[in-house]
Amino acid sequence: MSAQQTSPALADLAVGQSIGTRTVEVDRSRLVRYAGASGDFNRIHWNDRFATEVGLPGVIAHGMWTMGAAVNLVADWAGDPGAVVDYQVRFTRPVPVPDPGSAEIEVSAAIGALDVETGTARVDLTVTCNGVRVVGKAQVVVRL
Questions:
Q1: Which domain holds residue 134?
Q2: Which of 40, 66, 88, 117 is deepest in the core (most CB within 10 A)?
Q3: What is the Cα–Cα distance from 84 to 7, expressed in whole angstroms?
Q4: CA distance linking residue 82 with residue 101, whole number of Å
Q5: Is residue 34 part of a domain?
């Protein structure tokens, strides 16, 4: 995308075309900040003992944080977060966040469908952590 172009042109896209990849890092301090911003203070996001007592591998990232971190790739590509008109995911696995250290989610995006009549593209996301898919059927509809 050139500096003058603010969003990709629908006519220049093809189903299957990659629009990019991104690695996003999350550590415990980011989870605390996200909890404060979202109001989600569930102990599975900050307390190892509690998280393991309920059957998790330890503290896990908020699902909505993971969802938001993943869609940023598409919003940046589109040139405007307001271009995202629909976004749906199915959470399949948690993102464990070690202490000390951090976890990384890998996001890749490709055009899944084009709708010339509505001026939209469906972008399919693949989101993994440690090689394991953490969301399934992640689809973003973008109006271009």
A1: 15-27+62-143
A2: 66
A3: 12
A4: 33
A5: no
CB of 130 within 8 A of CB of 102?
A: no
Task: Specify if 117 maps to a domain.
Answer: yes
DSSP element (H, E) containing 106: strand 102-115
Measured between alpha carbons, how far is residue 57 from residues 2, 49, 94, 96, 144 in Å?
A: 44, 10, 9, 7, 41
Residues 6+ apart with CB under 8 A from 16: 110, 111
Q: Answer whether residue 45 is part of any domain.
A: no
CA distances from 12 to 7, 19, 38, 138 (A): 11, 12, 37, 23
Angle at which helix 28-38 crosses helix 63-78, to 10 degrees, equals 90
Domain presence at residue 46: no
Q: What is the CATH number of the domain that holds 125?
A: 3.10.129.10
In this structure, the chain runs to a length of 144
